[in-house]
Amino acid sequence: MIGAVTGDIVGSVYEFHNIKRTDFPFWSDGSRFTDDTVMTIAVYSALKEYISGGRQGDLHPILIRKMKEIGRRYPDCGYGGRFIKWIAGEDDGPYNSYGNGSAMRVSAAGALARSVQEAGELGKISAEVTHDHPEGIKGAVAVAEAVFMAGHGYDKAEIRQAMKNLYSLDLTLDEIRPHYRFDVSCQGSVPQALEAFLESSGFEDCVRLAVSIGGDSDTIAAMAGSIAGAYYGIPEDIKAQAMSHLDRYLISLLTGESR
Length: 259
Ligand SMILES: [Mg+2]
Fold this sequence. Notes:
The chain is an all-alpha fold. It has helices at 2-11, 35-52, 60-71, 81-88, 101-104, 107-112, 116-128, 134-150, 156-164, 173-176, 190-199, 203-212, 217-232, 236-244, 248-255. It has one domain (2-255): ADP-ribosylglycohydrolase fold, CATH 1.10.4080.10.
């Protein structure tokens, strides 16, 4: 999860000021956590509750409760329009979204699953409480499975092969970058995030590559960072910097300690 949080915070400065290069300041005064971090932690909290309850019963209502409970504390963290209404409202039904919100929040499904299949299933459920469009679900399944594989010894060729069942991945970052425009759909940002991970040489490099594409930088970096964190691990100094941008409540949810 810290990989997603780091990507979100680093990318937050560049979401509306795209920078199509990799040699940018990794942290700056404007770096802040946004909806990607808040919802990543909300999904993590829901999955932890579900798993500590023995993986029994329906996960959907736990996700809905945690996403609303935690999400309502941060009304201005950058949610999309329909998601704001869903978070604030009493109607708990999904709204057929294929936005990348389903894929940016899903890393805990890959981190806590016991198999690729379970990662995909948990990812699917975490998506369909709001993003029940097939592309919304596919984006979440892809990132969840990639995070699981990255954390369980699969190499990049194997991860690329698995992801090619979902997306074509036929363009390199250098081919994507010149023409890439802001696109908050799963199908228009998840394959780009996967490619950033697959071409990266380390965690920081992956986040830099993800931001360098442009577009919805904090979310692309959150998705790519979640996979890279599982694959390479996260350097301690970067982890500490990321945590220093969170508040006590989010830290307590992530670490399980109240401070
Ligand atoms: Mg965001």
